[in-house]
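User: I'm writing a tutorial on reading structure tokens. Could you give me a worked example: one chain, its sequence, then its tokens, then a sentence or two explaining what the tokens reveal?
Assistant: Sure. Here is the example chain.
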Amino acid sequence: MKIALPVTTDNKLDNHFGHCEFFKIYSIKNDGSIDCIKKISPGNGCGCKSGIASVLAAEGVTVMLAGGIGSGAVSVLSSAGIKVIRGCSGNPDNIVKLFAEGKISDSGETCMQHEHHHNHSSQGSCHNN
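And here are its predicted structure tokens:
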């Protein structure tokens, strides 16, 4: 399974999907091992208009672990076959580990029209089960 996260240059989950510096792609193997396999530039435009969904889908990504993300981006990613889990924050490696352990769930919250910014203070998690 391949998972993508929007990341800042200082290796933190970007709290706004459409403004990230790059996307990190991780692979979770059948034996449970996790590898960060690639970084991808988001290209031009915001997340919902950048074409990143098709790029990530072509890389085999099936899950996006995000912090703040708008409904347009969720719709575009979903249409590309990528499940979005919202409400994550912290260190990308820790977030992926928690996901692999089945310890996170989607917050169901979306940002409003490119204006809303989240200020999560978690240590590297999504909404814990």
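What the tokens reveal: The mean pLDDT is 83. The domain at 2-128 is CATH 3.30.420.130 (Nucleotidyltransferase; domain 5).
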